[in-house]
Structure prediction request, 315 residues.
Amino acid sequence: MKKILSRPESLKDNQMHYCPGCGHGIIHRLVAEAIDELGVREKTIAVAPVGCAVFAYDYFNFDTTEAPHGRPPAVATGIKRTNPDKFVFTYQGDGDISAIGMSETIHAANRGENITIIFVNNANYGMTGGQMAPTTLIGQVTETTPFGRDPKREGYPIHLCELLSSLTATTYLERVSIYNPKNIINAKRAIKKAFQYQIEGKGFSLIEVISNCPVDWGMTPLDSIKWVEEKFIEEFKLGLIKDKTEQI
Amino acid sequence: MATIKINSDKCKGCSLCVNACPKQCISFSKQFNKTGYHWAVLEKENDCIGCGFCYQVCPDVCIEVYR
Prediction:
């Protein structure tokens, strides 16, 4: 018997601090596998956010820096412009990218920076205990919306991929999920494609990964992936949002 | 012939692999590991087909698949 699947080289052999069943571990692995397969580990610089993935440098086996809350696209812009031969990606949560970091995200996308953003959407602020985020669904109960999100008071969920798709400079935007093996394999395909685009110098790409947050949603891991399948992806439809290289 | 190896120290007992296994070969240990979880174990060793679904869904990347 031969070993056919095991921990990728780009992922350190450390115990992750994420809650049991959290999708971050899966997405870390997909990113690490994609980097191994593209053979760019030695020239990769990742930018971690503020949020649950803040300790990404403990898990990724390549250089990782840490940005102020919401600012990874700006930090990645600086790194990529000064080191155009390096491979630069950011790994951000929904509170980070679509609340405090919305401005940096939109402007990096509008400039068409040649970077990749992995956007993990779990519909709340996970690290601080499950407060409402801009991506929280209508009626979803969180720490700060105890009676459910009311659009009259808190507005509607932000669909970041659709928002960025109107910008001329964005190259590749896709929304994927990780609630079953089929979708996990598809998510890896999308992440690898976005990384490939950066290596080929095609410009800005963002992969939104619909993930789960069992502890802050008050669910078991199994209930949380069921909720993703039944409710979450009903609001955030999966699929390709924009691929400029195919349009040309 | 296929099998999986589960790292009992890293497993957090989330049960995603138990749910994903198409042959229902995975269950939980009776003992606790050092972080206090019942870790996943391959109970029906002969039924494993090495499909890798458990590896795909494991958030702690503690499963290795052999085939």
